[in-house]
């Protein structure tokens, strides 16, 4: 039998054991964003014609929390294991590089989905939400967290210190998420910035995800899915290539 | 029958450092084998090549006939490694750690063997304690247990007794000896040469990435062509014996002699000089002398 289910179980158990930090903290942060921005902007901004700002904001916040936590899961697990040396426990067994990849990415998906669902749940009593196309919600949640799980693996494999992972998160993941339309519709932007947003793959994740709720989006959801799937394929292929070479793991 | 371990012409370079320069080794099944050498000799690199943690630049390595690259699953299933560094996963208890490690090898229902390993390593009372709360010695026991969860036919222990108390050391060796008697092949690296002499049937000595001696432990010790005469004298050591002096402390002189005949002439010299022997001991060479000899000559 394969060691893959155990590696996946171990990765899930790892974040579950410190759920205050890995689930509770991001849920609180998302809730604060919602209450503060919702309070400041509700009634002043309407999106897609009739959607109130807080309702528009919720899917963005859910997706942001989901993406950031998927990234945090795989990157922190790998860098911690490398620094403490216990990465050896997963390098000695007969696990293939593909099993290794699948376990870390799926654990990141689980963490991303759990955090996303928790953020969604605590906002429900305060915001009147629609769920027009649940399958689009799930598809974009899965693909988005898988992309960030794989990016987290790349960061965790490449980095030698925790602050290098933090740099990856602060200078790449955070700006791309914030500039992807979490807090606004890109149609409210000047033409130049609107054009530039189309080069941000995170924009398509959030826009397609939002379509699942309102049945309206800046871009056709099929086009968003194609971009996200292509991005996922490229990031996965790169991560698998690193693992296959044993880059910074097997010397 | 394939050898438990077969290493052919293995080379490995890390930047400027040539860590392994053409290692050839064959360890038959069931042997208790010692891998000795000073720090930086390449012992851990060689073990890492076997374990798939380091990829050789040239040459091949097989465990129970499985190539460590081409058939890595077979090779890793056949190998249990106790790493030198005291590493642990702080998220889990001892039992969780062992169940997880077992699962990585595809073993789902392994409770009975895990309980037996914990019992033999005196870990049963700590089964549900978090790894962080264990002492260094206990963490070392868990590392040994982790290497054994999948009952590997070949067990490699990289300095398993460094910084470990006498009680654990004895318990560990009792258990490892029993595994060896049951047919497991054991490869041991240690800086405690007395331990290696007592346990290992055959020994390879490494220096700067090369095998500089490979023989049975008894033959290696036999190769030492000197013996040591320890004397405590009431009076001075005669001048002609000073050239043979090989250490010693206050009032004690250790003389390095080539044969038993030299003992007689040394004692005559002492008598002639009018010194009186207060204490005398003839020390047989041991593995440590063999090791020092080999390292000096190579």
Strand and helix map with partners:
The complex is a heterodimer of chains A (251) and B (298).
Chain A: H1 4-17, H2 19-41, E1 46-47, E2 51-52, H3 53-84, H4 88-91, H5 97-123, H6 134-158, H7 162-178, H8 191-197, H9 201-214, H10 221-245
Antiparallel strand pairs in A: 1-2
Chain B: E1 5-14, E2 17-27, E3 32-36, H1 43-51, E4 58-63, E5 66-67, H2 72-77, E6 79-82, H3 94-104, H4 111-120, H5 136-148, E7 154-158, H6 166-181, E8 185-189, H7 193-199, E9 202-207, E10 210-216, H8 217-222, E11 227-234, E12 252-257, H9 260-272, E13 276-283, H10 287-297
Parallel strand pairs in B: 3-8, 3-9, 6-7, 7-8
Antiparallel strand pairs in B: 1-2, 1-4, 4-5, 9-10, 11-12, 11-13
What does this structure look like?
- The complex is a heterodimer of chains A (251) and B (298).
- With 251 residues, chain A is mostly helical.
- Chain A has one domain (4-245).
- Chain A contains ten helices and two strands.
- A two-stranded antiparallel sheet of chain A has the order 1-2.
- In chain A, β1 (46-47) and β2 form a beta hairpin.
- With 298 residues, chain B is of the alpha/beta class.
- Helices cover 34% and strands 28% of the residues of chain B.
- Chain B has helices at residues 43-51, 72-77, 94-104, 111-120, 136-148, 166-181, 193-199, 217-222, 260-272, 287-297; strands at 5-14, 17-27, 32-36, 58-63, 66-67, 79-82, 154-158, 185-189, 202-207, 210-216, 227-234, 252-257, 276-283.
- In chain B, β9 and β10 (210-216) form a beta hairpin.
- The radius of gyration of chain B is 23 Å and the shape is elongated.
- Chain B starts with a strand and ends with a helix.
- The model of chain B has no long low-confidence stretch (mean pLDDT 88).
- The chains are: A mainly alpha (251), B alpha/beta (298).
- At the A-B interface, α1 and α4 of A face α2 and α3 of B.
